[in-house]
Amino acid sequence: MPGKPYKIEWRGPLHRLGGLGHASREYVKALKRRGITVHSGSARRTAASGLLESKRGMKVLIYHYPPHTLDMARERRRYGRIILNAVWETSRIPARWIPAINEFDAVFVPTRHNVKAMRESGVRVPLYIVPHGVDTAVYNPSNAPKPIQGSKGRFVFLSVFGFQHRKNPETLLRAYWEEFTDKDNVMLVIKTGGYGPKQTGEWIRSRIARYKASLNIPHKTAPLVILTGLMNEKKLKGLYTAADVFVLPTRGEGVGMPFMEAMASGIPVIATAWGGHMDFVKPANSFLIPYRLKAPAASMKGRSAIAKSFRHLFADERQRWAEADLRKLKELMRKASRNPALCRAKGRKARGDMLKLGWDKAGSVMEKAIDSVIRG
């Protein structure tokens, strides 16, 4: 509300594509809608000036970059409070981050999964759950479906993810190819993209084709559509409503924003039953895949490792993430395809649940958390 005894500088990846950049932008807008003074920028180091206190009150820095990249001693001379806004996907955060995180006044994280990972890694400073939101006006069941060639009359599975190992494209593809033949009236649509100029759409398709060949599948498989070009929000929202169910056997999510977008669009999700998305993905609105917790490095070798690994983040021997049960994933995909009415019912429940998780709520929770840090 107006008259807050502080002003915020938000320093984060505001111009970045993907979930981190989107979350940064939406948090800033949500705080501004609440009448809070927020200055924002994408540079990790900014030429902040002035004293800790001013006529507008205390200066608070919210830092939405990796914690070890902040010069804490330098920034302590400029800000009365310094808060980390962070998200993490595996059971533990990188060990090199822990000393840096414990220099912050507090950490804002979006889910209970993040709290558990940080506490068990040795983070001692106060932790506040500040959830992500989803724009339920943009992602809406009434959106016109995006035309997908060959999809008419078929049950459409959709998956949206960056082409990285954590997202587990291998298990998704194997389950689909092994479970469905060209006689099944289904289609899998994957919207994905690589990391860096060398990981083009052609590169992704070649990796997928080689993986399929290595599996020696004995039958002709059901159709697969791979979309790798940039897609604006207008096209993406129509992609969700063109599908009957969203599926992603992810190994770990800090939040899982595509899950939220799909559910807001009125379609249920088939998801691994572990990770940050479990704050809102429930049996009533989704299909949950059993899993086993394993060391990430174990699955980064061999023919099934077709996507970017990010080993520098996810190969610590103490870390664990979820390996989805392949057999159960097949069963759930088959069950969904045979029960479109069940999918519609779960989708309606998913839509109702997402109506409670807008960005305005996220802004309200963050405001209260900032107030608490200031008082502390």
From TrEMBL:
EC number: 2.4.-.-
Keyword terms of this UniProt record: Glycosyltransferase, Transferase
Pfam families reported in the protein's UniProt record: Glyco_trans_1_4 (PF13692)
Nucleotide-binding as UniProt keyword: no
EC top class, as a word: transferase
GO molecular function: glycosyltransferase activity
Classification via CDD domains: GT4_PimA-like
Coiled-coil intervals, chain numbering: none
Protein name: Glycosyltransferase family 4 protein
Organism: Paenibacillus thailandensis
